[in-house]
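Justification of resources, computational component.

The compute hours requested in this renewal are based largely on the per-chain cost of generating structure records like the one below. Each record pairs the submitted sequence with a full structure-token output. That output is archived, and it is also reused by downstream analysis tasks.
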Amino acid sequence: MREKPSYFSILTADVRYDERLRANEKIMYAEITSLSNAYGYCSASNNYFADLYKVNKNTVSTWINNLKKYGYITVEIEYIKGTKQVNKRKIYPNNTYQLKERYPINKKMDTPSTKTEIPPQQKSGYPINKKVEENNTSNNNTSFNNTSNNNLRGDEDFKKKVISEWNKLDKNIPKIKTLNVSTDRYKMLKARINENGLDKVLEAIRSIGNSQFLQGYKTSFVITFDWFIRPNNFVKVLEGNYTDKQRQEEGSSYSEDVAIREFEEFKKEIGL
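The structure output for this chain reads:
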């Protein structure tokens, strides 16, 4: 089935200004949001994107992996039951969830305005002129400073809670000491909190205590914080895919096999 993107797409500020991303990766993120409007996820194949951008599939795969690596998308693979053959891929744009939850579109907002015109600078894609920027800065300084102070206090609060909950886990699991805002670790954690809420993150951490596998008592694999906060891994832990009860009910170690393979790939990425 041919993908049908909507007229509008989303390119959030954190994606636009992330210097780790290539320009085409940012464009692809916007395209993914456009293709996600119907069901909340994009099911387009690498062939689709390769044809759209006139590149090869390996390039598309690299772009998707980078968007996933930096926490901007979550990729889920559905397998044909009883096999490891891929049935369908779902790409969830993480920030799209935030926008839909915080700013749901209503009829009034969705109605095109006949009075408001887009400034010429924005129509052409060039930055807004300096005078407008200065006016906006002047008008918003007080609000920005208050918000910044509140954010700093909020950040310190959730960091303490996460570190405390994580360090209560089994002695096999490596402890964490800091969560510096300039690190990928912090950004990934913040993305998980924005998507799921702090309570769900803490719930997922506590659930690790119900998995002999994640605690390193079944294989050489032991969960680490950096592995835990990656989008795909976090969802699986939160949903209980590795808990002892879940494994007994399913009678399968497939999730564990996948975890071990992904962990080996993860170590290669970070140079271990």
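Residues 130-166 form the longest helix (37 residues). The chain has a mean pLDDT of 75.
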